[in-house]
Amino acid sequence: MKKVFLSLGIALLSITAATAQDAKKGAEQVKTSTLAVENMAFATDSHSFGTVAEGPTADFEFQFKNTGREPIVIQRVQASCGCTTPSYTKEPIAPGKTGIVKASYNTLGRPGEFNKNLTVISNAGTKVLTITGTVEKAPTTSVPENSSMIRTN
């Protein structure tokens, strides 16, 4: 019986020692990132289109510079609604280089004020960009509306 307990104890001790060594090697191999969301230095994080006509898309490109020491990779850009279509630089942005996040707002059928967010998710962190403006309703026809009370046939 003593031999069984002794064998189990030795086996348990050797497994524990091997696991601890593997964990130490894994910790040494983990590379810590020095990137922070501040390393995505955007020229501006909001844009106002002012008043735009209904119909064509309103487009704006947010540019940023990588001020970190590692490449920035944008994983995805999520718009706050389906009326805004984002596009962005797909390849890694090297230190000192610039990248772009483009916002395209579909104005068709959306008269009035708008305030939309784009959430940029990258290996440097998460950044929220904002576009705002007012869509001016397009005329329903090219002929002026008859506002007289006389009915014409």
In which order are the strands of the major sheet placed? Answer: 1-3-6-5
Shape category: elongated
Annotation field: number of helices? 1
Mean pLDDT: 84
Q: Characterize the biggest β-sheet.
A: 4 strands, antiparallel
Q: What is the CATH first-level class name of the domain at 38-136?
A: Mainly Beta
The CATH superfamily of the domain at 38-136 bears the name Immunoglobulins
Helix content: 10-25%
Kindly report how far apart the N and C termini lie. Answer: 112 Å
Notes on the protein architecture:
- It is a single chain.
- The chain is an alpha+beta fold.
- It has a domain at 38-136: Immunoglobulin-like (Sandwich).
- The protein has one helix spanning 2-29, and strands at residues 40-42, 46-53, 58-66, 74-79, 84-88, 98-105, 112-122, 125-136.
Describe the structure concisely for a colleague:
The protein has one helix spanning 2-29, and strands at residues 40-42, 46-53, 58-66, 74-79, 84-88, 98-105, 112-122, 125-136.
Features:
single chain; alpha+beta; four-stranded antiparallel beta sheet; 153 residues; 8 strands; Immunoglobulin-like; four-stranded mixed beta sheet; 18% helix
What is this structure's SSE topology?
Layout: H1 2-29, E1 40-42, E2 46-53, E3 58-66, E4 74-79, E5 84-88, E6 98-105, E7 112-122, E8 125-136
Parallel strand pairs: 2-8
Antiparallel strand pairs: 1-3, 3-6, 4-7, 5-6, 7-8
